[in-house]
Design goal:
The chain is α/β, with parallel strands linked by helices. The chain is 36% helix and 18% strand. A six-stranded mixed β-sheet has the order 2-1-3-6-4-5, with helices on both faces. Helix 1 links the parallel strand 1 and strand 2. The protein starts with a strand and ends with a helix. The model has no long low-confidence stretch (mean pLDDT 95).
C-alpha cells in the first residue's frame, strides 16, 4: 500500500529451563499475543485514516527469526510503516504495587534518524495511558525484541513492557495463575487508545 500504516506485533514462541516438556510462556509472550488478538477483534471493520497490520512472529527467543524475515520483506517491498508497536511481556507487576507500565521508544540503536519519530510516538502512548488508564508510565530504550529488525531498517519503533522483572521469566512457572489480568487489561486499553489516536490522525 502507498498509505502509511501501524504494525502491531509480538511473538508466540516461548522457552523455559525445560523447553522440551514445559514452556507455558503465559507472560512471555501469551500476554502480548492475547492483547493483539483482542485489539484485532475490537478494531475489525472500523474505518480509519491509517491502516493497521497485526503480526505475531515465531522464533523471537531464537534471535528474532520471524521478525527478521518480516522486516527484510518490509524493506524489499518498501512497506510504509509509520510506527512499529511491540507487545512483549505485558501482564506482570509486583504484587501489591500500583499500576505502572514501561513505554519503550527507540533511542539510538542502528538507525538514529528514526529516534525523534519514535520518541514522539512513545510520548503519545504515555499520554494515552494518562488519559485512558490507571497506568503510570516510565520510559526506556527498546531492547532485544521483535521491533529491533524493523529499527534496523529505519522504521520508528516503540513498545510496552512490564514495569517489574517477572520472577517466572523463561521458567516453567510462567503460567496463567501468575498473570495479572488487571495489568493486562490496562495495557490493552493504553495500546487501543494509541492505535485509535494514530489511526485518526
Amino acid at each position: 500500500t502507498d498509505e502509511g500504516f501501524i504494525l502491531v506485533c509480538g511473538h508466540y514462541d516461548s522457552i523455559s529451563e525445560n523447553s522440551a516438556t514445559s514452556a507455558p510462556g503465559a507472560d512471555d509472550n501469551a500476554s502480548g499475543v492475547a492483547a493483539l488478538l483482542e485489539l484485532a477483534r475490537i478494531l475489525k471493520g472500523k474505518k480509519f485514516n491509517r491502516g493497521i497490520l497485526f503480526a505475531v512472529f515465531g522464533g523471537e527467543e531464537q534471535n528474532l527469526i520471524g521478525s527478521n524475515a518480516c522486516a527484510a520483506i518490509a524493506e524489499q517491498e518498501n512497506w510504509k510503516i509509520d510506527v512499529v508497536i511491540n507487545l512483549d511481556m505485558i501482564s506482570y507487576r509486583n504484587p501489591g504495587s500500583s499500576p505502572k507500565i514501561i513505554v519503550e521508544y527507540d533511542q539510538g540503536n542502528k538507525t538514529p534518524q528514526n529516534d525523534s519519530a519514535a520518541k514522539a510516538y512513545g510520548l503519545l502512548m504515555a499520554q494515552a495511558a494518562k488519559d485512558y488508564t490507571s497506568l503510570d508510565v516510565e520510559h526506556t530504550d527498546i531492547w532485544n525484541s521483535d521491533y529491533i529488525p524493523f529499527e534496523n531498517k529505519g522504521y520508528a519503533c516503540i513498545g510496552a513492557y512490564n514495569p517489574h522483572d517477572n520472577p517466572f521469566y523463561h521458567k516453567s512457572t510462567d503460567t496463567i495463575d501468575n498473570v495479572n489480568f488487571d495489568q493486562l487489561h490496562e495495557v490493552v486499553k493504553m495500546v487501543l487508545a494509541t492505535i485509535v489516536i494514530l489511526s485518526e490522525s
